[in-house]
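request received
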Amino acid sequence: MSDVTGGTPGRRRGRPPRTESAGTRDRILSAAREEFSERGYEKTSVRGIAKAAGVDSALVHHYFGTKEQVFEAAIEVAFAPALNAPAAIEEGPLDGVGERLTRFVLGVWENPTTRAPLLAIVRSAVNNETAAAVFRRLIASQLLRRISARLDLPDAELRAELAAAQLVGCAMLRYVIKVEPLASVDVEAIIARVAPVVQGHLTGP
Amino acid sequence: MSDVTGGTPGRRRGRPPRTESAGTRDRILSAAREEFSERGYEKTSVRGIAKAAGVDSALVHHYFGTKEQVFEAAIEVAFAPALNAPAAIEEGPLDGVGERLTRFVLGVWENPTTRAPLLAIVRSAVNNETAAAVFRRLIASQLLRRISARLDLPDAELRAELAAAQLVGCAMLRYVIKVEPLASVDVEAIIARVAPVVQGHLTGP
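response:
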C-alpha cells in the first residue's frame, strides 16, 4: 500500500504532470481530512471528498484507491504530530523517557490544532472496524517498531501499549468526555502523576 | 431527574396500573438499550425505541421524558455492572484496592454480555456531547462520590480519575481498537502490571 499512500501518486491510469499532480493530491488529502474530521469514517464518501476538493471522484480513486486507502493517507498526515512520539523515546536518556513521552502526548492534545484531527481519528476508530484496522496498522508500523527498538526488551511492545493506555485514557477522560476535576486541572499536575507511571511501564521491573 | 429515571415511572399524564406499567416500562427500557447499542445516541430516535417496544412514542415520553432522559435511564441499567466498581474499593483492605478494582473492571470488559452495553456507552459518549454529558453526570454522582468517601484524601477524585484513565485506556486498546499484543495477552498478565499502577494512583504518595 505504500505506493498509494506515499509521496508519489498511484499510477494506475497514467501519470499527470508532476506539479499539477502534487497540488491536486494535496487538495484532495486536505479535503479528505476535513470530511473525515467532521463526519467520521462512516458518513464520509469518496464522492463528498471529491466535491469538497473540486475534482471528479475518479481522480480521488486514481490517486488513493478505495475510501479505506484515502482514510489511511489522510490520517497518516493528521496523525503526523503523534507519530513524532517515538522521537521522545529515542532521544535523551532512558530514565527521562516517561516524562518526555507524557509531555509530548499531552502537548499534542492540549493544542487545539493538533487535537482536532486526533479526535476525529479516535472517533472513527471507536465507531468503525475498518477505521480501527487502519489505526492499528499505523500504530504497529509507525510507533511500536521504533519504541521496541529503543527499549530492547522482549515485552517492549506490551510495555509501550500499557504506557499508551495510561495516556490514551487520560486524553479520553480529559479532552473527550471531560470529566471533572481531570478536565480542568493544570496539565503539569497530570504530568507529575502520570510520567512516573509511563516510566514504570516502559523501563520498570 | 431522579423521579424520571428512578424505579417508579413519571406521572405527568396520569398513572397506569402498577403491574402493567412495570412491564411496559421495562420493555421500553430494554428496547432503548438495544437501539442505543446498535445505532449510537445520534441515530437513535424516541420513535424507533417506541416501535421496537411495540408502544406509542407518547408512552416513551410519558415514562422517561426526552431522548436524553431515555438515554440516561438506559445507560444507568446498562452501566449497572460498572457501577459496582466502588464496592471493589469500599470492601476489603485499602492496600488491595488496586488489584480488586483492576480485576473488577477488566472482568466486566472480558465478559461479552457486560461488554456490549459498555461499548455502546463509550461510542455514544465519544461521538455526542449530550451523551458525554449524561456519562459525566453518571460518573460524578455514582462513582466519584463513593470512591472519595473511601479514600478520604483531598485529591481523591483526581486520583480516582487517573486510575480510571489507566483502566479506560487498557479497555480502549484491548477491546475496542484491539492493538496487538495487548488484545491477545492473558488478562492476568495485564492485571499483574496494571494493578500496582491503579494502587499507586489511589493510595500512593
